[in-house]
């Protein structure tokens, strides 16, 4: 699978941040699906697959624990993002970024997640 066909799910309710993430991630050649809520993310996950996900920990319809669990069940790497360090601390086993973050740091995390999912090259 080439990077150009890799798919990233962005779960972020703040439209300005979601649009910025979409622009930056798509500029790197990845496909992006954006969801503004837990409900829309769960609906999307019921019929689409992803290679990585960015999940905001503060969403209008509740905590995204179900979204994170569904992604992890499908072995999709998850990066959590939040402006609240306490919320990030509740997910010590996941890579996280504290808002505001630099896009370069985000892309480094995302590339690391995607590289970990790349199939091994045949000998």
Automatic annotation (TrEMBL):
Q: Which residues form the Response regulatory domain?
A: 7-114
Task: Name the Pfam families for this protein.
Answer: Response_reg
Query: Which keywords describe this protein according to UniProt?
Result: Phosphoprotein
Q: Which residues carry this modification: 4-aspartylphosphate?
A: 56
Query: What SMART domains does the entry give?
Result: REC
User: A GO term (biological process) for this protein?
Assistant: phosphorelay signal transduction system
**Protein's name in the database:** Response regulator
Species name for this entry? Answer: Gluconacetobacter entanii
């Amino acid at each position: 699978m080439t990077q150009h066909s890799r798919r990233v799910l962005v779960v972020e309710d703040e439209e300005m941040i979601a649009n910025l993430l979409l622009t930056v991630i798509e500029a790197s050649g990845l496909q992006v699906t954006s969801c503004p809520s837990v409900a829309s993310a769960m609906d999307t996950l019921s019929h689409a697959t992803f290679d990585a996900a960015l999940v905001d920990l503060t969403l209008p319809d509740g905590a995204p624990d179900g979204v994170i669990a569904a992604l992890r069940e499908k072995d999709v790497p998850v990066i959590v993002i939040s402006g609240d360090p306490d919320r990030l601390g509740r997910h010590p086993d996941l890579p996280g970024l504290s808002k505001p973050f630099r896009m370069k740091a985000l892309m480094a995390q995302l590339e690391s997640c995607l590289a970990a999912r790349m199939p091994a090259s045949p000998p």
